[in-house]
What we know:
By secondary structure, the protein is of the alpha/beta class. The chain contains 9 helices and 12 strands. The protein has helices at residues 40-47, 70-76, 92-97, 109-122, 138-152, 168-185, 196-202, 220-223, 226-233; strands at residues 2-11, 14-24, 29-33, 55-60, 63-64, 77-80, 156-160, 188-192, 205-210, 213-218, 236-242, 245-252. The strands form 3 sheets. A 6-stranded mixed sheet has the order 6-7-8-3-9-10, sandwiched between helices. Strands 2-1-4-5 form a 4-stranded antiparallel sheet, covered by helices on one side. The protein has a two-stranded antiparallel sheet with strand order 11-12. Helix 6 links the parallel strand 7 and strand 8.
Amino acid sequence: MLRIEHLVYHYGERAVLNGVGLTVAPGEVVSLVGPNGAGKSTLIKCVNTILKPASGVVEINGRSARSFNRREMARTVAYVPQQVGQAMSMPVIDMIRLGRAPHRGLHSPEHERDVVMGVIERMGLQAYAFRLYGELSGGERQRVLIARALAQEGDLMLLDEPTANLDLRHQLETMTTVAQIARERSIAVLVAIHDLALAARFSDRLALLHDGGIHADGPWPVVLTPENLVTAYGVSAVIGSDSGLPYVLPAAAPSAQA
Length: 258
């Protein structure tokens, strides 16, 4: 579904991404993890053609991402950004309907309505459907944006810190829904996320970004090792699982240890 090879992106003279390679298969959830500035958001924006890499390959469904026109990209790739601009004053239901815009004219009005209402129900947004988007809290807006992305019904979903503004309950509900839909619809999902425990719990693989490249890639027990966390984050940590639920407990920066 998604293939990235030898991707390079510079901010000025600094190579944020320097030869990154990564794949995401249909039905697979892959989380990009790493410290601030590691290039997680940059990589997602290169996939979505918001940013143009200096070199490298990004292919979606075997086709160069740069060959997609805007409507084709919107039909194929659903994107939830980390930062949202000024809130629009429209009802939530209309905001979610925007996710169907790339499909306009391809389906019956009944089908379009069913998709939107189904997403609203699945995300638990019934009580917000006719409220103005601009009047919602940051966490509520984030859930609406994820619902809009789900309504796009693309083959690839890109999520940039989707749980950043959500409370514990809605973090779990959102990531559970994303993982379930990925499997049900065979959607490839690439998530940039800071919460290592959430990433480990809901992802098939983690890709740890460090020093411009993928430092480690695989199931969470392979990636979330004490050695890798010291290398990438500069902290020691206690890592394990309890009743099948992974946890990561930062202990101390190496320089602060006794």
